[in-house]
Amino acid sequence: MQYDFQQHIDRRHGDSIKWNRYGDEDVIPMWVADMDFAIAPAIKQALADRVDHGVFGYAHVDAQLVHAAIAWFAKRWDWHIDPSWLVAIPAVVPGLNYAVQALDNPGKITWPNPVYGPIAKVASHLNLGGGTFGVDADGWDLQQLEQQLQAGARTVMLCCPQNPIGRCFSQDDYQALAELIERFDAYVVSDDIHGDLMLDGQQHLPLIKACPQIAERVLTLVAGGKAFNIAGLPFAFAVVPNRHWRKSLQDKLSGFAPSPCVAAMTALKAAWLHGEAWLDQLLTVLTENRDYLMSTLADLPEIEVIRPEATYLAWIDCRKLNWSKPAQHLRRFGLGVSDGTEFAKPGFVRINFGCPKETLAQGLARFRLAVEASR
């Protein structure tokens, strides 16, 4: 079956954060990380069937959803998870905070720079000190990470694949990281929500799989919100091999987190059981969109586009243009993007290319006009 990824769906004047940010301005929104594609028909049908059931009482994570998760990660990531490791959480972002709270001694926190906002805010949310280490297209700056660990950091927050850069991490990357984690008796909370959005036919490699020797020190967050465009139906799993950390997390969730959302679990179960063909076609479209973006902007010497290996997000260095606030400048030309300051990297922007080709072409044309007007 062929799925339609070129259909324009009008999202203005509804509940879309992405499309209503600019009101009635003539601005194409290419900022927040959700896509403009309709969900897989299998998910839509599963939700309709669940609504027809008519009762939405308290629910638990049933065996079918657990089995779907285990089978999905075994097939897609070649990652074999013990079912006992899974802990249901309301969503990835609160899960970041719950995961750190559940540690006996989180110490200070360290996280990569740039990184998407919720990871960078965990330290302040929990009143813990911390600092950053660099990451770019070449990977993590492990020397800076070691300095943070020497200064007392004991919890390392990761985003794999990296948002906003789109960098994937290799066995060698992880082995070098694991050596530091062991040496400094540290722990890792890894947000792998973009792991199903690998471009060019690659397969995501989770840290736990790459370095099983530190599995007891790693908590991995997984969800279908990004890959299946169901961010508005939040639900996630924490994968926690460490029994004590897992029990502590469950205790933290009790009384603070709501019971799992029926609609969200229905959608995710359908995605993992019946959404693989849709996802494979999506990845082809995203790879084509990535390549179109790269070629369209390739002749602009004032910018550098970091070629994403995963996600539907492109990270662009605009510092040569000397725009004080690049997102504000681009807004004047009718394009809405995420400013680098949101990721603690002034002078950069992040563009979301998870949209129909026509929308992407219009947005990139406006980007080019903004650059050319600055010459």
TrEMBL record:
Its EC number is 4.4.1.13. Its cofactor is pyridoxal 5'-phosphate. It comes from the Bacteria. Keywords: Lyase, Pyridoxal phosphate. It holds the Pfam family Aminotran_1_2. The keyword Acetylation does not apply. It is an enzyme of class 4 (lyase). It comes from Ferrimonas lipolytica. NCBIfam families: C_S_lyase_PatB (TIGR04350). This is cysteine-S-conjugate beta-lyase. GO terms for molecular function: cysteine-S-conjugate beta-lyase activity; pyridoxal phosphate binding. Residues 26-366 form the Aminotransferase class I/classII large domain. Signal peptide: none annotated. Belongs to the class-II pyridoxal-phosphate-dependent aminotransferase family. MalY/PatB cystathionine beta-lyase subfamily.
